[in-house]
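Quick illustration, no need to memorize.
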Amino acid sequence: MTDTAISVQGLGKNYIIGHKKEGDFRHAIGNKLKNIFKPDASEKEVFWALKDIDFEIKHGEAVGIIGRNGAGKSTLLKILSRITDPSTGRFEINGRVSSLLEVGTGFHAELSGRENIYLNGTILGMKRAEIKQKFDEIVDFSGVEKFLDTPVKHYSSGMKVRLAFSVAAHLEPEILIVDEVLAVGDAEFQKKCLGKMDQVSKNEGRTVLFVSHNLAAVSQLCSRGILLRKGNLVLEEEVNSVIHEYISYNRTQSNTGELINLDLRKGDGRFKVSEIKLLDHKLNPIRIGRTGSELIFEVFFNKKVNPLHGSFRIDFAIDNEQDQRIAWFSSDAVNAELQTDFESIKLKITKFPFGAGTYYLTFYCTVNGQVVDYIHQGYAFTIEEGDFFGTGKIIPKSQTFIYADHIVEI
């Protein structure tokens, strides 16, 4: 058998995106009537989710694929799992593949957990006797024995992930493909999964392809990394070198004041966040904040927002360089009542508790529960070392994410 598990050559995937032209109701009806007699006049755009991807993975390698949201990671795994076809290029896989891509993928909702184990094994080409031999091990690892004869449609997302990973890892595939769906599971189960993937790669000689925003997990599990950026393969090297390049690039994109990841924007768009400014305690614009200082994020909208037209809520989340969620704020949680029209609002953190590094702000605006504007990690900013404890001593950069504000009595 060849030493190559996966070979990818010139792989590309594009999608056709339609853009409807705006107009009034009469204009829309007119277009509908016209489209009865001729093709849709919507503007078309070709979007390349992947373009000219080349790499090769040997049997027994554990390879991490990293990149920001929209980089093409999940599209690549769907192609390699034969869920979707490439638009250009070719790929070759030598060995039986088991994939865990999205919650519930490969499960039949009406069948029980027990029946889905046998169904998945059959799809992988295993005989009933082989599946039966692994059955107890799968159930024990998943921890869903109590609900084994319950239809999967009644499972929580966490239960589905537990059973799906157990099936994928224990039915002895030569190649295991795992997307970041593991983030749905609890911390204890994620640890079990990482241990199992490490075992099948290092002890059993199987190939693992792993996508995750948890860079620490990627570094721990994988020996080699692939970095994707906007559908292009940027770097393919030793995993820690790839992680360093990913973090370094993200840092250079920060502090421009402009929004990023606009291609991932969601919401009905009745109003939109147009700009975010980082301010100090005197409301002066700054490019870099400091650990322990007061920071204010002023969020500007493209038009006046009238909170009296509905229940307005805005949530903010802060992620670190490893794409870990480390803070969350909500106007709803603090009962912020906005009574008049406004064009900007301010998020104030009186004593920024996080260490030096690059951080990302996600915002989520809703009115009456309807998503109006949302961009995941839509703003990047940098924090430098500062005097968190007010002692005059600058806290050097370390592995610590969060500093605790307390007094030590001697």
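The longest strand covers residues 4-19.
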